[in-house]
Amino acid sequence: MAMQFYASPEQVQRDRSEYARKGIARGRSAVVLTYEGGILLVAENITTLRKISEIYDKIGFAAVGRYNEFESLRRAGIRMADVNGYSYDRRDVTGRFLANAYTQTLGAIFTETQKPYEVEICIAQVGASPETDELYRITYDGSVMDEPGFMAMGGQAEAISTVLRERHDGAAELPTALHLAAEALGSVGGENGATRTLDAKQLEVAVLDRRRKGRAFRRIQGAALTTLLEGDKSVPEQDLGDVDAAPPPPATDKPTVSAASEEEPNSPESADPAEPSDGVNGDGS
Amino acid sequence: MPDYFTNAGTSSFTQFLTHASPELLPGRRPLPPGLSADIAPHATTIVAIATADGVVMGGDRRATMGNLIASRDIEKVHPADSYSLIGIAGTAGIGIELMRLFQVELEHYEKIEGTMLSLDGKANRLAGMVRGNLGAAMQGLAVVPLFAGFDLSPTDPAKIGRIFSFDVAGGLYEETGYDAIGSGSLFAKSALKKKYRVGLSTDEAIRFAVEALYDAADDDTATGGPDLTRKIFPVVMTATASGVHRLTDAEITAVAEQVVAGRMENPGG
After folding, report:
1. Are A52 and A206 in contact (CB under 8 A)?
2. Is the predicted pLDDT of residue A256 greater than 50, yes or no?
């Protein structure tokens, strides 16, 4: 009978952690930060495979690391959220619930399987104001952290976080927040420590727009992204992308009730997070 | 979370539910033998009209249970997603469940795949869901939807607004121009037949939809007409290039009042 070498549990955990961290550090980074109008999710991504996704009405997802692993986590999140929203109500799907499910799953994978997941994910839930936004960082070993308004993931996340920590402002406008995100991502990875300037083709950008009723997730891509990155603040809100693959809805002065989303009027009472959406959200009424 | 949440699996929410929570799916519950048609409220007339810009769908507000009016303000026309509409006729409870499930089905696919289903894909999916209810339908709990939407990638550029009807066995039929379902559909369709022409504007089609519902209510007790005293008017929605829009209370009130005023002069329309 072959002799098994003894490895202490501490050693096993350390090896797995190191393995996961190395895997994550190889990939490009992503940042998530709050701004005045919602939550901005930005990933450095030159491929068409996405790192940022919609999970539910107010909840977005960003991930770094191994694609097949975070893609299966993303699907799982959408499935969980949809099952819960369907069997209870759309308002009963929360970011904390999803963060809990992810931390359990990743924790179990880390301790029970040979190979840990090489991923780090963020669950972002947009609230009525920057103070009520929730950002959860869930790492490869299942630990979960509640982040204060901004977070960076991936290789050299520390350096990126430093830039964000110095300059993040929850009251900033979208173009300012986007510039900060792009500069933070570009602050690492240059040759000999030089900074890089990232353009629209290198970034995957989405927002969770706190002013929208219903589905808050909007991708910003193409011309709208280029214009925003060039610092032009004249981009009208309606041009800021749309739900996946759908052409942006043109401006309308009539209230629209749709399964997808509607623009919330800027009235004081509409800032109440407990206000039930009058959109048809699949509640059958 | 269980394995079936994380596996590659399917992009379909209903298919996923068969693994995760089959009890949430309609059409899987054993029914006691015998006809059960009169145990639950029935939703009635829905009309849809294709226009130059998309489609218009309208539904009256009445639900009946035998000789009783179960509800005067039920809403039977809903957005299926941001470019399509669904209206339901038949057993209201099952219809509403079908509609909710269909809404989640479309949104789920969109989120998982990052792209929308084609309009035909959506209609086929809905046909499958109606087919799943065949057992209940044979015992009197039938539900038949009407599906219409704006086609984002039409094969024929002239046909951007498309209407699909279904039968209880899950048969899917694309309709030309206009269609109606429900107990008053016979009268609504006859009214539309006289007025419909190709290339209607959205405003004209809205007016015709309300007229057709008025005609249905005129001859069918299960269809409710405009209720001027309570200000309950049909639900009318449009699906165009700018997405789905539900007529506001003010908009539909204006149209309904015009229609009623017209009938004061000429009761036959």
Report:
1. yes
2. no
Decide if B238 is catalytic. no
Using CA atoms, how far apart are residues B120 and B110, in angstroms rounded to an integer?
15
Which of B81, B83, B248 shows the shortest C-beta gap to A254? Answer: B248
Q: Give this complex's ipTM.
A: 0.91
CA distance B86 to A284: 12
Tell me the residue type at A183.
E
Q: Give the CATH number of the domain where residue B68 resides.
A: 3.60.20.10
- Tokens for A18, please give them: 């190191």
Whether residues A83 and B24 touch (CB distance < 8 A) is answered with yes
- Asked if the Cβ–Cβ distance from B1 to A54 is below 8 Å, we say no
Helix (H, G, I), strand (E, B) or coil at A88: coil
- Rounded to whole angstroms, the Cα distance separating B165 from B146 reads 5
Spell out the domains of chain A, with CATH numbers in brackets: 26-248+257-271 (3.60.20.10)
Residue B27 lies in a domain: no
pLDDT tens readout for residues B145-180: 999 999 999 988 889 999 999 999 999 999 999 999
Query: Looking at CA atoms only, how far is residue B212 from chain A in angstroms?
Result: 23
Q: How many CB atoms are located within 10 Å of the residue A71 CB? A: 19
Q: How many structural domains compose chain B?
A: 1
Give me the mean pLDDT over the B193-210 stretch. Answer: 96
Would you say B38 and A105 are in contact if contact means Cβ atoms under 8 Å apart? no
pLDDT-based confidence at residue A240 (cuts at 50, 70, 90) = low
| B113 lies in some domain | yes
| pLDDT of the residue at B41 | 86
Binding-face residues of A in 87-106 toward B, CB within 8 A: 87, 101, 104-105
Is residue B206 assigned to a domain? yes
* Parent domain of B183: 39-265
Please give the Cα distance from A28 to A45 (Å, whole number).
7
A259/B81 CB distance under 8 A: yes
Residue B24 inside a domain? The answer is no
Which stretch of DSSP H or E encloses residue B33? Answer: none
CB-count exposure of residue A9 (10 Å: 0-12, 13-18, 19+): exposed
The whole-model pTM stands at 0.87
Q: Give pLDDT tens digits for A88-131.
A: 999 999 999 999 999 999 999 999 988 999 999 999 999 999 99
